[in-house]
Amino acid sequence: AESATGSAGAIKAIDKQSVHQICSGQVVLSLATAVKELVENSIDAGATNVYVKLKDNGTELVEVSDNGKGAAEQNFEGLTLKHHTSKLKDFSDFIHTFGFRGEALSSLCALSDLSVVTCHESTQIGARLVYDHDGRLTQRVPHPHQHGTTVTLQKLFFTLPVRHKEFQRNIKKEYPKIIFVLQSYCIISTGVRITCTNQMGQGKRTTVLCTSGSNSMRDNIGAVFGPKQLQSLIPFQQISPNESIKEDYGLGGVDVPKDLFR
């Protein structure tokens, strides 16, 4: 487009780094999205323990640790590359996992300082991996770690100054969204113990959320919202329609499936 003075600037392609940052900002929309992506990765890796550590409501640091399978050495480079994933062998894997575009870690690299400590289930010694904003592995050193992965994000959105300022200004609105997202995963993730702590400044670390790893969704609801909440819950029971109801709805002679809902 021509400027007000009438001189036309040449139309040029946006440089790759800016494109990566712009697109990443559209994948990771908020702190809650970042936490969601990391927690999903942990659960998809078969974790039974997921620990979310926040500092200053997540503005300074977000760390998600799990006891899942861990990352294999041949995947260290591809871990943070765009559209790379170890979860997809064939299309049906989209149904059996939380879904993915292979963009989360790549986008988080562009928006924060990202490091990973991981130890694959087949090895004894872990590795600490540091990535640059393009998702390239810049540092790799042996590091003791239990089987599983810890992803650490520092200063989310600081590579987008205007977005970062807005993010810090609105943290009081952002923080409850993280808790809401975590509550959802706490409820549906049976057999997974999820804990979230927050530390303000040099203050004490407080536990914000904690489930016990129960296999019952009812127990999870009690752990998240308190035992009082359980008193108002009504179990959902499926009862197949009897003959007269079938007739009313014109379903005579139709085989109605036993489990109508799942």
Automatic annotation (TrEMBL):
<dbReference type="InterPro" id="IPR038973">
    <property type="entry name" value="MutL/Mlh/Pms-like"/>
</dbReference>
<dbReference type="GO" id="GO:0006298">
    <property type="term" value="P:mismatch repair"/>
</dbReference>
<dbReference type="InterPro" id="IPR002099">
    <property type="entry name" value="MutL/Mlh/PMS"/>
</dbReference>
<dbReference type="Pfam" id="PF13589">
    <property type="entry name" value="HATPase_c_3"/>
</dbReference>
<dbReference type="GO" id="GO:0140664">
    <property type="term" value="F:ATP-dependent DNA damage sensor activity"/>
</dbReference>
<dbReference type="InterPro" id="IPR014762">
    <property type="entry name" value="DNA_mismatch_repair_CS"/>
</dbReference>
<dbReference type="GO" id="GO:0016887">
    <property type="term" value="F:ATP hydrolysis activity"/>
</dbReference>
<comment type="similarity">
    <text>Belongs to the DNA mismatch repair MutL/HexB family.</text>
</comment>
<dbReference type="GO" id="GO:0032389">
    <property type="term" value="C:MutLalpha complex"/>
</dbReference>
<dbReference type="GO" id="GO:0005524">
    <property type="term" value="F:ATP binding"/>
</dbReference>
<dbReference type="GO" id="GO:0030983">
    <property type="term" value="F:mismatched DNA binding"/>
</dbReference>
<dbReference type="InterPro" id="IPR036890">
    <property type="entry name" value="HATPase_C_sf"/>
</dbReference>
<protein>
    <submittedName>
        <fullName>PMS1 homolog 2, mismatch repair system component</fullName>
    </submittedName>
</protein>
